Amino acid sequence: MKQDKLNRLFELLQTKIILFVGIGNALKSDDGIGIYICKSIGQTNKIKTLIVESGIEKFVGKINSINPEILILVDCTDFKEEPGFINLLPIEQIQDFTVNTHTISVKRISEFFKMKTFLLGVQPENVKFGEVFSIKVLNSADELIDKINA
Q1: N or C: which end of the chain has fewer CB atoms below 10 A?
Q2: In whole angstroms, what is the distance from residue 103 CA to residue 56 CA?
Q3: For residue 59, is pLDDT > 60?
């Protein structure tokens, strides 16, 4: 994990209303990790979640109507790092790293959001058909979930 950037996330959790949006395909192994993470985050008055799978473009209106202070898109992301590596990036800094199972890139779709948007990416090991996460990816996701829910 990129600890310095993730520490920033945990600071934001204390002060801002955040919407975590789970992106991915649950039938393609690690590509579903964003969905898994968002389903596992406990919702509070400051933390909300929404599962969009691979159709985020259908949820632009809903996301904007929820109107969080911070939007965090949680997705399987190829950073060319070790499986389970997690990074938080402002959306304007991404180069479309995401695994291409979406109909539109998360960078392009973010242009439709009114709030500050980040990508919380998890490096996959396997995105072949299947419903089982790689051990390293699952362990990293569970560690992240525990910290968010703390």
Answers
A1: C
A2: 8
A3: yes
- CA separation for the pair 120, 93 (Å, rounded): 12
The Cα 30–Cα 26 span in angstroms is: 8
18-23 and 86-90 beta bridge pairing: unpaired
> Exposure pattern of 39-71 as b/e (b: 16+ CB <10 Å)?
ebbeeeeebbbbbbbbebeebeeebeeeebebb
**Under a CB-based contact definition with an 8 Å cutoff, are residues 62 and 114 in contact?**
no
Cβ–Cβ under 8 Å, residues 122 and 22: no
Query: Tokens 């362990």 sit at which residue?
Result: 139
Report the alpha-carbon distance of residue 62 to residue 125 in Å, rounded: 31
Q: What is the pTM of this model?
A: 0.89
Cβ contact 20:141 at 8 Å: no
Strands 70-76 and 47-53: unpaired
Distance CA 19, CA 26 (A): 20
pLDDT in tens, 24-58: 999 999 999 999 999 999 999 999 999 999 999 99
